[in-house]
User: Fold this.
Amino acid sequence: MRVNFVLSEALTGLWRNVTMSVAMILTTAISLTLLGAGGLLYVQIQETKDVLRGKVEVMLFLNDDVTEQQRDALQQRLTNDRSLVRDVSFETKEQAYERFRELFKNSPDFVQGVQPNALPASFRVKLLDPKDYSNLADKYRDAEGVSRVSSQQEVVTQLFSMVDAVKNTTFAVAVLQGIAALLLIGNTIQVAAYSRRREVSIMKLVGASNWYVRLPFILEASMAGLIGALIGWIGLILGKVFLVDGALKPIFNSGLIPVIEWSDILWTGPVLALIAIAISGVTGWSTLRFYVKV
Amino acid sequence: MGSSLESGVVITLENVSKRYPKSRRPALDNVNVGVDKGEFVFFIGPSGSGKSTFIRLLLREDVPTSGKVSVAGRDLGTLHSWRIPQLRRSIGCVFQDFRLLPNKTSAENVAFALEVIGKTRPVIRRVVPEVLSLVGLEGKENRYPSELSGGEQQRVAIARAFVNRPLVLLADEPTGNLDPDTSIEIMRLLDRINRTGTTVVMATHDANIVNQMRRRVVELDRGRVIRDQHRGVYG
Assistant:
């Protein structure tokens, strides 16, 4: 098989129908950008869940007028609660304030407005199974000296459901764009096959193998897919630069969601390219097989 | 596979019928024909008599409704679709409308047929001028079809069909678009190709040519063979 013949045929095909090719490539690119973004979010969420699962603490905030006796009793009870509790630590009012100051060190005005003794002391409980949060809350909510039970779990769950929604929307739009891209690829191949019908009929007449006849068209589709994947990848890189490291930086800096790393973006590129080449190639092939009879 | 070749038969049709879905009468109706290696056969008959269907069946562009078609020892009924290209490489084809690529020169048109079946560049460079001079187009290798006369265009088409030395040359009304003098020149060329041992099957309704050539004549009428005559005339 003559490689340059097949390649030049495919390139000519893309040029001949350049407006359609551009539409096809852009649609593919948008679809792949969204697919990539959705994929990155998905991986991110999984990672975050795993990381946080070990870290999430339930906080039992204590009344300001708690007695030492009540406090010791509570600690005793928590330490002995082997069915739920993995680890207990105590945080004094001073430690709480220290932590607060550290957390909001970028907003000194805010820190200044809070009295050092305004924050309650608390027991910080690590659970054996993070899902047992509400069991623990029920059990200790009315214990003496406890003012309020709170869990980072609630915050995390809310955050996750938000990110999940964003991820699902991204995937849904990616799928719709993907369908549009497939239809455009199919149409482009039909137009390409029509404009080359003379060549194709002669090729078949003189006994060119089916692959030789079809490959330029399939390659044309795959090339469009590859270019689309490249643009999609650039889209993700821009997203990293302007969103993750730009506008959305504060969210990632809060430490709840790990930052999307460059390495994640890097491996997305080849994955998107492979998906794009495979899907557009198969679309091209089946268009030829079922609609064009090349 | 070789048995029919050894006995010298290149084309056989056994009880072949072809019906098209929307047509009342069959395009071919129980046709039995054999063509030996090296023969020159005219298939004659008016439009709609089944000549084109016959050629489509030989090229495996279509399959018969019933009956068996064999070409070059291959039973086309059991031929895998991926083997069809192999079949077509053993058949050269010429048509009334030449079917040349307008944006390629005569040499490029012939070369294209070789390129797409994977011949190497040195082979192509050697073979193309050879076959073009064989058909009498020396010096016109770089002309585009629009710069050639109808007869010259048909010569390019014949060169393309013959360049692979096929077992069979199928010609579907090759003189249909040509004036009588040019037609005779084309027939001389086909005759010369036939003398190299290539079987030539030609569908035509040009009575003049058939009468001059005095070769085997198979006459079709409404899908049936009504005459099969050696050294025949148009009738």
About this structure: Strands of chain B lie at 9-18, 28-36, 40-44, 66-71, 74-75, 91-95, 168-172, 199-204, 216-221, 224-229. The mean pLDDT of chain B is 92.
